[in-house]
Amino acid sequence: MPKHDIESVEVDRKSHVEVLFEDGVRARFELTPLRQACPCAECNARRTRDQPVAPWIDKGESITITDAELSGAWGLSLDWSDGHSTGIYAWEKLREWVDAGRVGTITS
């Protein structure tokens, strides 16, 4: 079983996304760092040019999720309160981030 397969996902639109991976690892992703880590082409291009992905967040504005849906069996598509909606967060990428201590925390 690949360690990025998931058992469940919980989306708290104002606070976090929590993923329970099939190997028992439970990871919690707070919304601000999750939005800033958006894996879409536009956000990746901003990071490549050393531009902020979401500068309004850096100024203290809050971010929420307006919609969330599964993207097949491989990820989660999130729509954000800032109008951004092109990033799909692959389970494999989320697991990679949390294992590396980059985005998210392991809660159990």
Question: How would you describe what is shown here?
Answer:
The structure is a single chain. This protein has 108 residues and is an alpha+beta fold. It has one domain (6-106): NE0471 N-terminal domain-like (2-Layer Sandwich). The chain is built from 4 helices and 7 strands; from the N terminus they run βββαααβββαβ. It has helices at residues 31-36, 41-48, 55-58, 91-100; strands at 6-12, 16-21, 26-30, 65-71, 75-80, 88-90, 105-106. The strands form 2 sheets. Strands 1-2-3-7 form a 4-stranded antiparallel β-sheet. Strands 4-5-6 form a 3-stranded antiparallel β-sheet. A hairpin with a 3-residue loop joins β4 (65-71) and β5. The protein is globular and about 35 Å long. The mean pLDDT is 91.
Brief summary of the model shown:
The protein has four helices and seven strands; from the N terminus they run βββαααβββαβ. With 108 residues, the protein is an alpha+beta fold. The strands form two sheets. Strands 1-2-3-7 form a four-stranded antiparallel beta sheet. It has a three-stranded antiparallel beta sheet with strand order 4-5-6.
